[in-house]
Design goal:
The protein is of the alpha+beta class and 307 residues long. The chain is built from nine helices and twelve strands. Strands 1, 2, 3, 4, 5, 6, 7 and 9 form an eight-stranded mixed β-sheet that branches. The chain has a four-stranded antiparallel β-sheet with strand order 10-11-8-12, with helices on one face. It starts with a strand and ends in a 20-residue tail after the last strand.
Length: 307
């Protein structure tokens, strides 16, 4: 959801994401890994507010990564370079998504900043330029430019929409943050993957994902190639996954490069009970975000929110 307040400011909701499935292939020539992932935005979200600040330098306020180190600042700089014009603005990020958790908070904030800049300055960007700016800032940023679940390949920037049934999940975070680069390094040490083997697995996952019709079908897709190497080094992550399973999750796994974990549940009531059982761990009940008109069958009648 995007809102202007009539005073030269635009507010945008920046949702977290879950990697319902994440397969990791070999490292590419550009240093990234080939991946195949079923990704879905969820209702846990930050809020990004962008304001016009004529004559002032860029300011990004965020409790996690303020200033030029924030991906939101990189979006502003990238867009300025491509448009060959200054965009005098400030960006304020109100965080709800935990950092270092594999939930895509920084990437979502960056995409929200791009959306807000376009609205605030009446830029009318082409879809290609919007995508190129997002991809230049981070592999996950393009995902957040469009609503709903998507199947991601390449380094995460090749995206295909994929409708899913209504999902209820619990997200939980252990008391540890993880760095994406370090986790992928652990995976390379522990589980070298051939390109041929990865491609075969990715094709199989894509076919199964397209056939998912119920939450139970989606639960059968849940897996994360990065999970084993993290559990071996950060046992608290594995312990939290097992608590979700004990609380009745249809499936549970780590999301992205961690440290957050999630469980899928049959309905909202089951998710709420599981969240209570996880105390004192930080946990949230969430649902998927996708437009009702593209939602998969067997989904119920709830209308999903969107930015």
């Amino acid at each position: 959801m995007t809102k202007g307040n009539g005073s030269g400011a635009i507010g945008v909701v920046a949702p977290a994401k879950l990697n319902l499935a994440l397969l990791v292939g070999p490292r590419r020539a550009d240093g990234y890994h080939e991946i195949a992932s079923l990704m879905v935005p969820v209702t846990l979200a930050d809020r990004v507010t962008v304001r016009r600040t004529p004559g002032k330098a860029l300011e990004v306020t965020c409790e996690v990564a303020p200033g030029e180190e924030n991906l939101a600042a990189r979006v502003v700089r990238e867009l300025e370079a491509r448009l060959e014009r200054p965009l005098e603005a400030s960006v304020a990020i109100a965080k709800s998504i935990p950092a270092g958790a594999g939930l895509g908070g920084g990437s979502s904030d960056a995409a929200a900043t791009l959306t807000a800049l376009e609205r605030l300055f009446d830029l009318d960007l082409t879809p290609r330029l919007r995508f190129e700016v997002a991809a230049a800032v981070g592999s996950d940023v393009p995902f957040f430019l469009w609503p709903g679940p998507q199947f991601a390949t390449g380094r995460g920037q090749v995206l295909k929409p994929l409708p899913l049934p209504e999902l209820h999940a619990v997200i939980a975070v252990p008391g540890v943050a993880l760095a994406t680069r370090e986790v992928y390094g652990w995976h390379d040490e522990d589980v070298p993957e051939s390109l041929a083997g990865f491609v075969s697995r990715a094709r199989a996952l894509s076919g199964r994902a397209r056939s998912a019709r119920t939450p139970g079908d989606v639960a059968k897709l849940v897996e994360n190639d990065l999970e084993a190497c993290v559990r071996a080094r950060r046992p608290e992550v594995g312990a939290l996954i097992e608590r979700l399973r004990a609380a009745g999750a249809l499936a549970a796994a780590m999301t992205g490069s961690g440290s957050a974990v999630f469980g899928l549940f049959a309905d909202a009531e089951a998710a709420a009970k599981a969240r209570a059982a996880l105390a004192p761990a930080r946990a949230w009940c969430v649902t998927d975000l996708q437009p009702l008109e593209v939602r998969g069958p067997q989904s119920g009648g709830r209308s999903s929110g969107r930015r």
